[in-house]
Amino acid sequence: MQQPLYVLAESTQRTSGADARRSNVAAGRAVANAVRTTLGPRGMDKMLVDSSGGVVVTNDGATILKEMDIEHPAAQMLVEVAESQEAEVGDGTTTAAVLAGELLARAEDLLDDDVHATAVVEGYHEALRLALDAVDGMLIDGEVDREALVTVAESAMTGKGTGDIATGVLAAIVVDAVLQVADDDRRVDRDDIRVFTHTGASAAATELVRGVVFEEEPANDNMPRSVEDATVAVLDTKLDVRSGEVDTEYTITSVDQLDAALSAEDAERRAIAETLSAAGVDVVFCSKKISDPVAAYLADAGILAFSNVKASEARAFARSTGARRLGTIDDIEASDLGTAASVRVERHGGDDVAFLEGSDDSRTVTLYVRGSTDHVVDETERAIDDALGVTVAAYEDGEIVPGAGAVEVAIADRLRSGANAVTGRKALAVEAFADAVDAIPRTLAENAGLDPIDALVDLRARHDSEGVAGIVIDGPSVAITDPREDHVVDPAAVKREALESATEAATMILRIDDVIAAN
Ligand code: ADP
Ligand code: MG
What are the entry keywords (predicted)? Predict the structure, then answer.
């Protein structure tokens, strides 16, 4: 009799073939379903409660999936779709997750009809190519100027909980932030746009500071709390006697010698303040420690100094004022210093908040986000984050498309007419892809309280006759019209990324026919 052959450890759990596939597809769809009701301006919010009772109320797909603590490996892949969408273009996470879930659902039907997974995967890739073509065909002509960017930013924030601040106002702030830090090649470094949140005022008090907002007190109480037209030094060196760095031993044999040693140290500390003062410095930002005696001498010299500022802040102070970051104050020169319109410390809601308003061409800005409660501030920050993502994407490539489902209708249309050209069973997968893309306008309609089937029929009819049609939500009203007229536009990059990442995740999951889990 033949002995059984054990290849895997006994505790290993293995599912294969249709079972593995079904379980993966179901897990992926469950994730997509978790976020689908949040899609669009009429999307609902989710309240997420963690194990220690912390509460997050949000409408943001990436945040929901991150907070959900998902364990299933296939579901985890969908979470990664949302994460990469967030990292690449900063918005469109719900769209990407819903699309990936729909692609899986439609694939499941085909697999049940005995279409091989390979044919589905190939068909999906073919469909992706056609879909990207359709996006190109929907690009809105004309330059993406400030006004166009404001519409993009506003579309990304519609329906998000931004407290009592109008999305139009917030959109303008976001766009001005991006334009302020963009370089001549229209490139934007997101590190140059800082967001500083602080509760204790209504969201309407949110403002753009062309500089840095930070939470720091002056190094000494006698320092001025406000300096106008400041000359600024940014230092990455400790301000104290140098000998303090290494343990030097003095051999002191008399009181005179002790006095001499102490006064030599004192003179060195005094000299630090004198050197900075002689160079014309009014404000010092130091990423290392400023010792108390040195801070006292700086205060005597009328200098405002901040000790132990964070490294990221030191970068921002330098970018905002044009100062060079110095590792030593020996040979400090005027060209090493920067300028600021003002540096001041204010009391806001019981805390010290410091403001540096940089030079006119400050390369760093801060969105100073206010709100009455932590929940409002956090959700406003997430809305701003999405708006920044879309504004940067639209500004960098200069490409925008109509929103409100218009692109998706055009894609589905292109796929259905292109499916004929695709041979064999792959054509079925191209059609399935079209059905999956329909889920975006269908969900927008559903979330807006329309009958999804009727809405899709009207939408297609209008698309056929006018070329561009979306489900446009404007306050309380919903209409099937041209979204461009109501300024509902999205960056092309967000649409492309959503299509690509959803296809990638869905096909990756579909290719799996064996799950082998170590216990
Ligand atoms: P995502 O995480 O995918 O960005 P959102 O909840 O932000 O999800 O919804 C984005 C979708 O909502 C996009 O398709 C966008 O075009 C659409 N949208 C934005 N504003 C409107 C509007 N006023 N009317 C209809 N659709 C809109
Ligand atoms: Mg969005």
Answer: ATP-binding, Chaperone, Nucleotide-binding
